[in-house]
């Protein structure tokens, strides 16, 4: 499944809508998506949203849609 992750780059500064950023990633479920972001970034996650059907189509057509991948830590 594809997930849209809204985040702040810094966990120390109070979140502001104007500084919210987005990344897209593929994961088995929402928990796995959160785990991947938390283990590979210092980001403050605001929201994780599953994208499917019309939502996924819209994001692909209207957003800077690019799947994020993380290097394996093995």
TrEMBL record:
Gene giving rise to this polypeptide: rpoY
GO biological process, one term: DNA-templated transcription
Quaternary structure, from the entry: RNAP is composed of a core of 2 alpha, a beta and a beta' subunit. The core is associated with a delta subunit, and at least one of epsilon or omega. When a sigma factor is associated with the core the holoenzyme is formed, which can initiate transcription.
InterPro entries recorded: RpoY (IPR009907)
Keyword Transferase: yes
Naturally occurring in which organism (per UniProt): Lactobacillus kimbladii
Single annotated GO MF: DNA-directed RNA polymerase activity
Catalysed conversion reaction: RNA(n) + a ribonucleoside 5'-triphosphate = RNA(n+1) + diphosphate
Gene Ontology CC entries for this record: DNA-directed RNA polymerase complex
EC number of this enzyme: 2.7.7.6
Ribosomal protein keyword on record: no
Family: Belongs to the RNA polymerase subunit epsilon family.
Record keywords, A-Z: DNA-directed RNA polymerase, Nucleotidyltransferase, Transcription, Transferase
Function: A non-essential component of RNA polymerase (RNAP).
Pfam families per UniProt: RpoY
Name under which the protein is recorded: DNA-directed RNA polymerase subunit epsilon
């Amino acid at each position: 499944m594809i997930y849209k992750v809204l985040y702040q780059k810094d966990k120390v500064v109070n979140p502001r809508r104007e500084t919210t950023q987005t990344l897209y990633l593929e994961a088995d479920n929402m928990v796995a998506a959160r785990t991947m972001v938390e283990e590979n970034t210092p980001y403050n996650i605001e929201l994780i949203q599953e994208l499917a059907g019309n939502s996924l189509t819209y994001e692909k057509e209207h957003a800077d849609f690019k799947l994020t991948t993380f290097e394996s830590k093995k």
